[in-house]
Please model this.
Amino acid sequence: MQIYLPIAEMPVNVFVIVALGASVGFMSGMFGVGGGFILTPFLMFLGISPAVAVATQSTQIVAASVSGVLTHWRKGNVDFKMGNVLLGGGVLGSIVGIQIFNALRAAGQADLFIALSYVIFLGSIGVLMLSESLQAVRHGGSSVGAIKREPGGHFWVHGWPLKMRFQRSKLYISAIPPALLGFLIGLLSVIMGVGGGFILVPAMIYFLRMPTSIVVGTSMFQIIFVAAFSTLLHAITNQSVDAILALLLIIGGVVGVQFGLRFATRVRSEVMRLGLAILVIGICLRLGIDLVVPPLDPFSVVIEEKE
Amino acid sequence: MKSTALATFLLLLAASAQAQELAAGISRDAIEITSSFTGTDVVVFGAIESEVGDGLPASAYDIVVVIRSDRPHTVTVRKKDRVGPIWVNNETRSFAEVPGFYFVASTKPLKAIAGEEVLEELELGLDHLRLGPAPGTIGGPRTFREAIVRAKWRGQLYSEHPGGISFLSSTLFRTTALLPANVPAGNLKVTVFLFANGQVVEAGRSSTTLYIDKTGIERRLSNFARNDPWLYGLAAVILSVIAGFFAALAFRERE
Model:
């Protein structure tokens, strides 16, 4: 069944879009990532312009994350205090990110710099996660391996000032590392144009040493605000949010995320980390291949304005 | 719709009998985009008033039909180049005056109808689109402009149909243009040229406008997005939050 999209100015198949929303929602519920890095290229593959694809996928991410956070919240799996600290850092990060982005653009070769650092960054996170989670899976439990947490054990960030108690995460650490992490994610999302969930989630697991069960809900909480802000920004500056496309993606997304959450509860946390590691490496490979393989058409054409 | 078009046609014919060598019309003068829009056909038809003017027989004439967007777009083209082992966007050029839709049909291949200068002046044929630089930029070499045409052609938005005009009699002609589903909303200008001896004959040009507009909810949504972007963005966010809320609620009840 085809339906015409008023802003994208083209028709799409209703079932394809709902299914796309549902599968990305499922992944989102499993891993606590937004999924924009899969949605955007897929929508563009269907012929939707990049501006509309980027702007509209963020509404699906808001809806799926709200759906996921509410369910996690009922189970006590959201650390709101941690989420707010991350967000605070994120806001500062995006402000600084815009300056850096403009400076890079002005200097030229911004694309090369961004693409390379992205691939290297994702590659190292993915490989580290993969080796840790494989080891944990092989030893048959999360009590063995790199993220073992001894009661009262001290990690290097524990000595920093501004200590805060994050009850949900069972952490008593300085507020600086999570704020710094939020700052970095905000920076990256502006420069690279992604939500950053797949960087935030591993960082919360390995760097902040939060329990995996809390990480997904807290990451989604943070993503709601990032994606909502992005939706507003695109609606105001580009008028490129397509309401019909959004509605179809949302219908799939909010349901998909619920199935993802349920599936995640049946899977051991090291298996979930392994899955996320494979996902991160997959994205890294795709980006890496795009960089190295000669393009079919070296030219890309983008419509700037329609007026 | 058909009867009005026919009436217009007859009117045009009557008018042309006095002054023009060419009369032309379109099968419909407005297209409404609804939620089920998946593209449509438009028939352009007309008649040559033979033995007027220089008294040539009808067979000595050639016809070219052009349908193109009234309002041009601004388009950016990026070219990837090799830097070491890596392909990366290198040059970027901007072009204004890029039609969102361009269709040309002719009785013969365009190069057999008129010379290069004439085709270029009238922008007839995909090779002859001007695609001027965006204000304040230097434009780009031919390869960049060809990339635009290639991309639009792939999206079925640009097409060229040599021999795509059929004659119903020695003086009556018609051609059918496909407007694909992704045709940009906005007006299309339909122009019919009458050529003889490589030139457009005097009064051998006829233009009409084909109105394309969204209707119903499609129209209301795009107007909303354009006129109240703040409210529209807020509504999109609120809708997302509500949808997420209800999904979480629905799935709780099933537990």
The longest helix of chain B spans residues 229-253. Residues 216-255 of chain B form one domain. Chain B has a mean pLDDT of 86. Residues 47 and 95 of chain B are 37 Å apart (CA to CA).
